[in-house]
Design brief:
With about 240 residues, this protein is of the alpha/beta class. It has 2 domains: about 200 residues, 3-Layer(aba) Sandwich (Rossmann fold); about 35 residues, no CATH class. The protein is about 45% helix and about 20% strand. The protein contains 9 helices and 7 strands; from the N terminus they run H-H-H-E-H-E-H-E-E-H-E-H-H-H-E-E. The radius of gyration is 17 Å and the shape is globular.
């Protein structure tokens, strides 16, 4: 892998410091209506794609925080093992603590770094990239992480990709509803405005669902299938194209 593939994910991880890591899971449940449902369906989609009850190695990119992808999938499929990768030490520490609480640390290899840091030639039966892509600035960085994942998946292996899409400012009604979601959960007018300003400045999601499909295609994946949606958020499953380099 090239150094360019490493640089941007590490830079993006800097905003997930210890203070933000501590509030991440609680805040995510408000910002994403259906947080648990998305993770549950992601596990179900992987199990359906791989075949339930089979042993499998799952690459979890951006695993920091509450390790919800692993906790949910591990409960459904006891023969799955996981490699959790995240460049943010505070976020990864939260994930490790959760895995230890659930007794899942023995089923999980933890790597503080990026997917590009994994040994070349190591392959996985499936992968997940949940809540990461919209934090990476520009299409080049997005293609880089998707390409790094594709190169470590077996041909035909499924990837769960989930995150925000649409330019936030281009969808004023969705943005207003997102603000109402925070108000619904007890945030006052000043807090709602602060959070709206923060999301407008702090992320760079793909600008459409077609842009998501294009990024996947350019990175070595077959056309995706969307299985979950919530305001700006979408979740898709896509398989590594058999002929991808």
């Amino acid at each position: 892998m090239t150094a360019a593939h490493d640089a941007v994910p590490h830079d993006a991880a800097q905003k997930f410091d210890a203070s933000r890591a501590g509030e991440y899971e609680q805040q995510s449940r408000i910002a994403l209506a259906g947080y648990d449902a998305c993770h549950e369906l992601s596990a179900c989609m992987l199990a359906a794609a791989l075949g339930s009850g089979r042993a499998a190695r799952i690459l979890v990119a951006g695993a920091g925080g509450g390790a919800r992808e692993i906790v949910t999938a591990a409960a459904l499929e006891p023969r799955w093992r996981f490699t959790a990768v995240d460049p943010s030490e505070p976020m990864l520490a939260l994930a490790v603590a959760r895995l230890e609480e659930r007794g899942l640390d023995e089923r999980t290899e933890v790597v503080c770094g990026t997917v590009a840091d994994l040994p070349e030639g190591e392959t996985f039966d499936a992968g997940t990239l949940i809540g990461v892509l919209h934090h990476l600035p520009g299409d080049e960085a997005k293609r880089a992480i998707l390409s790094d994942i594709a190169q470590r998946l077996r041909p035909g292996a499924p990837l769960i990709l989930a995150g925000n899409h649409h330019s936030y400012a281009s969808q004023p009604l969705l943005l207003a509803a997102w603000g109402e979601r925070w108000r619904q959960q007890g945030a006052g007018p000043a807090e709602v405005e602060a959070k709206r300003a923060r999301i407008l400045q702090g992320a760079d999601p793909p600008h459409s669902e077609q842009a998501v499909a294009d990024l996947l295609r350019e990175s070595g994946f077959a056309p995706p299938l969307r299985f979950f949606s919530s305001l700006f958020w979408g979740a898709w499953i896509a398989r590594r194209a058999p002929g991808a380099a």
